[in-house]
Amino acid sequence: MEDGGPSEEEVAHVSALFGTLKYLYAFSISDYFPRLRGKADFDGHEKKLRTVLEIVRAYQDPLIDERIQVWNTGARTETYDLLDILIKHGSPKLTPNEIKAQIIEIMLATIDNPSNTVEWVIGEMLNEPMLLEKAVHELDHVVGRNRLVEERDIPQLNYIKACIKEAFRLHPFAPFNPPHVSIKNTTVAGYFIPKGSHVHLSRRGLGRNPNTWKDPLRFNPDRHLVKEGKQVVLSDDELKMISFSTGKRGCPGVSLGSTITTMLLAGIIQGFCWGIPGNKSSIELAESNDDLSLAKPLVAVAKPRLPRHLYPRSLV
Ligand code: HEM
Question: Pfam families of this UniProt entry (predicted)?
């Protein structure tokens, strides 16, 4: 769009991706009675998923085909992004359909947690400006105001990462981890779990457990800061909270997910002075009834704070 905002197709694409995620976490009768799978779509999930996936594919697939074509004609010879790598360096070489499936997976995996986290962090910061000041101070100190934040800055952006980790703890996108099935009888933390059980770990229960976290409902990024010289990491292998989970079925995208989220938050804090809209005294930080995202989308005032030439033309 001319004003730098998303086009109608882009809005529909993102909304369809969130639609797909909704059914990843939803209760479906055929998960518990697999014989029903494919026979009767009792809860209507299959139909709904097919509809949203069609919208996702209608947007993405032509772009992927176009890029494959660019490589086939020899117009591109160097890899610039993940799609180039999937096209060029798959080993064994991936078919167009496999590339398309991988891109759907990556789009789904990278959209909910980073956007939900950043929205909550900015909301919390607007209600407690000291937190925003600390983050801005860190960015001014590490990056300055004459260039944009880059991935090489991430190891030093420990306060920004602590804010993200605190949002993962207090405001996870989904109340539960995706379900796991135990493959043998086992005992965890004193609980007997018979073989074949569906196990749902509560992200909210762990993150807000008063036996682990002091003052658990307070958004306090300082609790994640570590000794000077050590870096804050967004994963928690001890499972005191769930960010990326852990073990064989833990998230394989820790590094990419940490980078995306940190760059997103650091970029918008560095690039803009954030404020509460004039007609309000604070941001309403209520959870939605469907998931744990903000009930109402965050509305905030953003004013550029860096030299003009650092912004895309459409923004200034
Ligand atoms: C901030 C970003 C992200 C967060 C917080 C996050 C978190 C999680 C969590 C909590 C799980 C469930 C693990 C479990 O069941 O124990 C998961 C699974 C998964 N994630 Fe991520 N993730 C992020 C980004 C990514 C990215 C960037 C990718 C790949 C490009 C990715 C790929 C996956 C996949 C494939 C699984 C399923 C693993 C399996 O079932 O074996 N995630 N993620």
Answer: p450 (PF00067)
* DSSP strand pairing (191-193 vs 198-199): unpaired
Whether residue 172 contacts residue 203, with contact meaning beta carbons closer than 8 Å, is answered with: yes
Give the pLDDT score at 35.
82
Tokens representing 106 are: 């990556």
Nearest CA to ligand 1 atom 40: 249
Q: Binding site for heme: which residues?
A: 251
Q: Each residue of 116-155: pLDDT tens digit?
A: 999 999 999 999 999 999 999 999 999 999 999 999 999 9
Residue type, 293: S
What pLDDT score does 52 carry?
Answer: 96
Q: How many domains does the chain have?
A: 2
Residue 174 alpha carbon to ligand 1 centre in Å: 12
Indicate whether 270 and 164 sit together in one domain: yes
Smallest CA separation from ligand 1 atom 10, residue: 244
Confidence tier at 312 by pLDDT (50, 70, 90): confident
Residues with C-beta less than 6 Å from any ligand 1 atom: 106, 109-110, 113-114, 177-178, 242-245, 249-253, 256-257, 261
Atom 28 of ligand 1, nearest CA residue: 253
Residue 304: strand, helix, or coil: strand
Q: Is the pLDDT of residue 64 over 90?
A: yes
Q: Is the pLDDT of residue 316 over 80?
A: no
**Residue span of the structural domain in which 55 resides:** 1-94
Mutation pick for ligand 1 pocket among 200, 251, 261, 265 (CB with most ligand atoms within 8 Å): 251
CA of 255 to the centre of ligand 1 (A): 11
> Any idea what the CATH number is for the domain that residue 138 is in?
1.10.630.10
Q: How far is the CA of 200 from the centre of ligand 1 (A)?
A: 15
Residue whose token pair is 């043998």: 184
Amino acid at 213: W
- For residue 49 the two structure tokens come to 């998923």
Distance between Cα 297 and ligand 1 center (Å):
24
Domain shared by 115 and 75, yes or no: no
Task: Kindly indicate the confidence band of residue 62, based on its pLDDT and cuts at 50, 70 and 90.
Answer: very high
Q: Which pLDDT score, from 0 to 100, does residue 1 have? A: 52
Neighbour tally for 202: CB within 10 Å: 14
190 within some domain: no
